[in-house]
Amino acid sequence: MDTEAAWSLRPEQPGDEAGIEAVLQRAFGGANAANLVRILRTQGGYDPALSFVAIEEAPAPRIIGHVLFSPIAIVHGDAPSPAMALGPLGVMPDRQRTGVGTALVEHGLACCRERGLGIVLVLGDPGYYSRFGFGPAAEARIEAPHPGWAESYQVLELLAGSLKETRGIARYPAPWDDA
Ligand SMILES: CC(C)(COP(=O)(O)OP(=O)(O)OC[C@H]1O[C@@H](n2cnc3c(N)ncnc32)[C@H](O)[C@@H]1OP(=O)(O)O)[C@@H](O)C(=O)NCCC(=O)NCCS
Question: Given phi > 0 = left and psi -120 to 50 = alpha, else beta, which region is 99?
């Protein structure tokens, strides 16, 4: 019945943790994505200003979507280049396909661009992420951290020229290995 409920976006705030975990558990049908965010939150580099939630206000406030952007490195020889990882991204099953995921990604990418963050990488369905401008990471000379990721590993250049001098293998903090 209530398929057109109003929602808005904002950065994560203290107290959102349980709602974020609930969204990720429901969206992914398991605990891995929720666990990843919980562990990353306790580690250096996690910036709540780049963790976004979609909130539905009525009938009671409820987090219906979440996306995280967190730092990784692209390593070539001794020279790591900074980049951001998009993910996890999840939307409550009863609110999927209503524009929430698109809004979270577009808003997060705009915030990254404003902060001067020029490269974003994602593991996901190219059929979904190509709409935001993501393309195969390999074509930009960025190697996936795990061989199994290669086909679904994509990159977006947020600031012109960011990819020009960047190449190498993407390195993620250890908690990603279990996600
Ligand atoms: C994938 C997900 C985040 C998309 O969010 P959403 O709010 O449902 O998506 P939106 O309403 O913004 O966008 C809907 C569009 O995306 C497409 N879409 C949704 N999920 C898709 C998928 N897995 N692959 C390709 N396209 C997808 C829809 O067909 C629709 O296309 P259209 O605009 O041409 O009609 C959401 O479905 C979800 O949480 N899925 C489970 C968790 C997951 O797979 N997360 C992504 C991991 S990379």
Answer: left
Q: Which domains does the chain have, with CATH numbers?
A: 7-174 (3.40.630.30)
Residues with CB under 6 A from ligand 1: 27-28, 89-91, 96-102, 124-125, 127-128
- Find the 127 Cα to ligand 1 centroid distance in Å: 9
Both structure tokens of 15: 């107290």
Ligand 1 centroid to residue 11 C-alpha, Å: 21
Å from CA of 152 to ligand 1 middle: 15
Determine the average pLDDT of the residues in 134-156.
96
* Rounded Cα gap, residues 141 and 26, in angstroms: 35
CB 164 within 8 A of CB 170: no
Q: Assign 45 a pLDDT band (cuts: 50, 70, 90).
A: confident
Name which residue sits closest to atom 37 of ligand 1, judged by CA.
96
CA pair distance 14, 99, nearest whole angstrom = 25
